[in-house]
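thread: overnight batch results

M.L. [08:02]
morning all. the overnight job finished for the chain we discussed friday. pasting input first so we're all looking at the same thing
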Amino acid sequence: MLWTASGIKGYAILASDGAIGTVSDFLFDDDSWLVRWLVVDTGTWLSGRKVLLPPFVLRHADPATREFSVRLTMAQVKDSPDIDTERSVSRQMESTVYDYYGWRPYWGSGFYMGGHGYAGDAWTGSAPLASRRREEEIASNQRNNDDLHLRSIQAVTGYHINASDGEIGHLETMLLDDADWSIHYLVVDTKNWWPAKKVLISPASVHDINWSDRLVNLDADREKIKSSPEYDELATIDRNYEMRFRDHYGGIRVLDRP
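M.L. [08:03]
and the structure it wrote out:
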């Protein structure tokens, strides 16, 4: 299932014995385009402290009440390492959280312990073969590399989007796939260029991101993007839409590298 990052923001996180806070942000890997952490604001419970939780602890989502349940207790979260989420999250910080909970880190487990979309139990079940292979490649590249690529979705929201021949709009939100918590699409608001229209962009079309200038540069030109399958944010993105989208971009698939 695809979720909008902006839509999940504000969802309550419920431990087995009570509420621990709300989702305030996501940290994603700008190399693999996978969400690595949810940033949870604990509000008045822990005096505004924010904690990091990996997506694989999420259990069931209830869109009606805007809640996620997690396989943790309030005491576990309360005693977890104090991480300053206003600073860049280092590999050492990540290791501290994984060590505290006794989890295997994604960069050393051979595959990412993904979201509740995986078959079976997210703690013991196996990821789908394609996701597992992709994660094995990523893990292999990261085992001896401490150069992190973690970015805040909240911080990136609003970045200008440049096609190969000029600006087309700004990043409004991202669509997240809860099967493996990958960023499936970027949602671009083109109102300053193409009134009253939003378009989807695959991360595979991103050439690079200029963090200092707040720019996302694409490999596709304006006309290619303008003629892409129309995006209706009220409609479900089904297999037919995905096939038309991929065909339009020459068979490009999400997370394929340019």
